[in-house]
Design a protein that fits this description.
heterodimer, A: 320 residues, B: 251 residues
Chain lengths: 320, 251
């Protein structure tokens, strides 16, 4: 185990990693929440961390940010062991915890300035940076309003602005867009993406597979406390070429036998007035459906060949 | 951001945490009720209609006021932050648990000193004690530190609801008031009652205030200062242990 850990560490160093989790294990009573988890996040990478509820995502992120001490294993933040030098490591990171919140009895600007003061910024610079962030997050006009009067989306914007006031090298986001309105979701995604383009490494934990698909360059899927797979979304999808599908809908109802007893169809999913037909040969299935529609006087409303989605990969890797 | 000096970062963390606590928690209802109104009503209930000489009772009242005010903020901060979801965020800043504890202690201490300076000035207007200016400030600061540390220790159980902590805190704080030498002078106590008085950190402040105002005390001021210091160290040590143990409970 010791040798394996050393080898893993050497491999990660070569990869120019900025976050390194090496053989992390954490148990709570008889339950092993995280079991020998190792991975590395490269500099400037947009790294997604996915998993079903109770898979060990929050426990892992809490160990990465120094909130939980692992039973065994090491966390290195830009080469700094967070257990030995928590302050130095924390200076490099910004954190938006899942259950984290801001002070509702303070104004938006007071919250951001309070965060900045922990990093030792001079007052004038802090005022300037806070105003810039408030403008960037569309809250400048409300900067002196108490946060208790803000909507959930606005609170989350203040939350993120407070977490990035010190221009962190690494930003940890735990479910940042969960339960937010579409505008806030889009704004947050845009800003986080911009930060990544400017060089910030992003570690994103999310339930939203589409969000991970849009943003992340690499994804780790954790299941039952262990890493099931780490790869780029594209490669994860391509592992499931056999799960290609055709989505279709006709203007009228038709005989279910067309889809349910068809040799070309492996599996069927009914989605409202549409059907999703999983197949190994989408080309032949489309031709077959077109012919069937013509023969039975049906109008095709939609017909689309779908590649395997990241959701398919997620479901496959996290099967109970 | 680079860390130039970890000590600077440590003290900066304490100052910012203190300021945050002052901005947010001084005006909370339980702090005002348990910190200001409660000692006043306790004083009135014991003083009015009993023909007690105010100049005899005042050091005890001042000590009680210091105890309630300085220990009123600490028990609330952590459960409040856990309930509001701000504690996890606070821990993600470049601070340690000791930084947070000392920031909470400092906020309670400053609150206690501010209120008691006002009480002292009002008392002085009527009673005009010949104050010992060497002992009184030290006694005030050390006692505020000690009682505020107790307040922070009382916040360490993992309860998320501040009301649970307030009940627990009252369960600890009230007996300490009753076994101290506030209502009955130490020289009039005997047996187990007298032994119990030495277990309350309030006893030593009452004794120091008697010395500061009247020039006479039951114990040596050195013993009183040492006892307050020892209680402070004990409370801080226990607070560190319990807060560390319950760090993520209730998040």
């Amino acid at each position: 185990m010791e040798r394996q850990g050393r080898l893993e560490r050497n491999r990660m160093k070569k990869e120019n990693s900025v976050v390194e989790a090496i053989e992390l294990t954490k148990t709570f009573g008889n339950i092993t929440a995280v079991n020998h988890v190792s991975f590395a996040v490269r500099k400037r990478e947009f790294f997604g961390f996915l998993g079903p509820n109770g898979a060990g995502k929050t426990t892992t992120i809490r160990m990465l940010i120094g909130l939980l001490t692992p039973d065994s294993g090491v966390v290195l933040i830009d080469g700094i062991d967070i257990r030995k030098n928590p302050i130095k490591a924390k200076m490099k990171m910004g954190v938006i915890p899942e259950m984290g919140n801001i002070y509702v009895d303070l104004t938006a600007k007071q919250n951001i300035i309070l965060s900045g003061r922990f990093y030792g910024f001079p007052k004038k610079l802090l005022e300037k940076k806070a105003d810039e962030l408030l403008a960037q997050f569309g809250l400048y006009e409300r900067k002196n309003d108490l946060v208790k009067n803000f909507s959930r989306g606005m609170k989350q914007r203040v939350n993120i602005a407070s977490a990035i006031i010190h221009d962190p090298e690494i930003l940890f986001l735990d479910e940042p867009t969960s339960g937010l309105d579409v505008q806030s979701q889009r704004l947050i995604k845009t800003i986080v993406n911009q930060m990544n383009e400017k060089g910030t490494t992003i570690f994103l934990t999310t339930h939203n597979i589409e969000e991970a698909n849009q943003l992340c360059t690499r994804i780790a899927i954790i299941h039952k406390g262990e890493i099931a797979v780490i790869d780029s979304p594209e490669k994860l999808r391509s592992t499931f070429d056999t799960t290609q599908s055709v989505e279709m809908s006709f203007d009228k109802t038709f005989d279910d036998k067309l889809v349910e007893e068809n040799d070309l169809v492996n599996r069927v999913e009914k989605m409202g007035d549409r059907w999703k037909l999983y197949t190994n040969n989408p080309d032949r299935l489309v031709k077959h459906l077109t012919k069937y529609a013509e023969e039975h006087g049906l109008t095709i409303i939609s017909l689309e060949i779908c590649r395997p989605s990241l959701e398919d990969a997620f479901v496959k890797f996290t099967k109970p | 951001m680079k860390v130039k000096n970890l000590n600077t970062q440590f003290f900066r963390g304490i100052i910012v945490t203190t300021e945050k606590n002052i901005m947010i928690y001084y005006t909370k209802a339980p702090v005002l009720i348990f910190g200001l109104l409660f000692p006043l009503f306790m004083f009135l209930s014991f003083y009015l209609g009993r023909g007690i000489n105010l100049s005899v009772f005042f050091p005890g009242f001042l000590a009680m006021s210091m105890f309630f005010t300085a220990s009123s903020v600490g028990p609330l901060i952590t459960p409040w932050e856990k309930q509001a979801g701000t504690y996890e965020r606070l821990l993600s800043f470049p601070v340690s648990i000791n930084t947070i504890i000392l920031g909470d202690v400092a906020a309670g201490m400053i609150f206690g000193i501010m209120i008691n300076v006002v009480v002292l000035i009002i008392g002085q207007i009527f009673l005009q004690y010949p104050i010992n200016i060497l002992y009184l400030p030290f006694a005030t600061v050390l006692a505020a530190f000690c009682y505020s540390s107790l307040g922070v220790l009382l916040a360490s159980p993992s309860a998320r609801a501040p009301s649970h902590i307030m009940m627990f805190s009252s369960l600890i704080r009230f007996p300490l008031i009753f076994v101290s030498g506030i209502f009955i002078p130490l020289e009039n106590l005997h047996g187990i009652g007298r032994v119990l008085t030495f277990l309350s950190p309030i006893t030593y402040l009452v004794d120091l205030l008697n010395f500061s105002f009247k020039g006479k005390s039951h114990m040596s001021p050195f013993v009183d200062f040492s006892a307050l210091f020892a209680f402070s160290v004990l409370f801080l040590w226990l607070a560190n242990r319990f807060h560390r143990r319950n760090l993520i409970k209730g998040l």
